[in-house]
Write a structure and sequence with these properties.
It is built from 7 helices and 14 strands. It has 255 residues and is α/β, with parallel strands linked by helices. β3 (47-50), α1 and β4 form a beta-alpha-beta unit. The protein has a 7-stranded mixed sheet.
Length: 255
């Protein structure tokens, strides 16, 4: 299987509109971060998208991706769902509704934000989705076992997702001891890390991530959902402890 980072930025993206800091003005492509999303390619070459934010269209074009077989949604914040309307060309081409897997709470929010996609009589050109409400227990789709990992993002629950010995978690500020058990003995752990300093009410910062790395002991840990406050990629990546790396848009991992 493969995982490609379509985007590794926060809800504002990097560069941030109007910001003139050294990260936002950097010419290094690794310092330019679209909103966080990944594409998982299964052993049978099926495409599993995790989250569909406002940069979805550009991400698909840039990475020469042409299909989405299913989408896993972590939670309902706009930087993770508002690009769903841009799935229309894929839906028109395939002639099939795109299956979305998410909490029942998130399914309700998606219906509220895209009511035209669920109307009894849809206008021509509307997207079409097949909602699957999932719980915090493993399920199988596309011949792939997927294990949700429930984390806390400020005051709401968010799903991370585990495939084989890789886990992807974004928008987390707390992980319970029960859920940590799912994250042990991993080859790859992907965690959000919004900045280096100053505690955040909803996201991990770098000291939190390093502590989790030492506790969970994955073979490799990649940081995502990164803001311009974390610093320049080429400098910060070299200063991280061995085994921890900054992800960047377009990075592909085999697992």
């Amino acid at each position: 299987m493969k995982l490609k980072f379509l985007g590794t930025g926060t809800s504002q993206g990097v560069p941030v509109i109007g910001c003139t800091c050294e990260v936002c003005t950097s010419e290094n492509p690794k310092d330019k971060r679209l909103r966080s999303s990944v594409m998982v390619t299964t052993d049978e070459n099926k495409k599993i998208l995790i989250d569909c934010g406002p940069d979805f269209r550009q991400q698909m074009l840039t990475n020469h991706e042409h299909t989405v077989d299913i989408a896993l949604i972590t939670h309902e914040h706009n930087d993770h769902v508002i690009g769903l309307d841009d799935m229309r060309p894929l839906i028109f081409k395939s002639g099939k509704d795109v299956p979305l897997y998410c909490y029942s709470r998130v399914a309700h929010e998606i219906k509220n934000r895209f009511p035209y996609a669920f109307a009894d009589v849809r206008y021509p050109g509307a997207p079409a989705f097949e909602l699957h409400e999932i719980e915090n227990k493993p399920f199988e789709v596309l011949d792939t076992e997927i294990t949700p990992v429930e984390v806390i993002h400020y005051k709401i629950t968010v799903f991370g997702y585990k495939f084989k010995k890789l886990a992807y978690i974004t928008d987390a500020g707390f992980i319970s001891e029960t859920e940590k058990e799912k994250l042990k003995d991993l080859d790859v752990l992907i965690l959000n890390c919004i900045r280096k300093f100053d505690p955040h009410p909803a996201h991990f910062i770098l000291p939190d991530v390093i502590k989790l790395f030492e506790e969970l002991k994955p073979k490799k840990l990649f940081l995502t959902h990164i803001s311009h406050h974390l610093g320049l990629h080429d400098i910060e990546d070299k200063e991280l402890p061995a085994g921890i790396h900054l992800a960047y848009d377009g990075l592909e991992l085999n697992f």
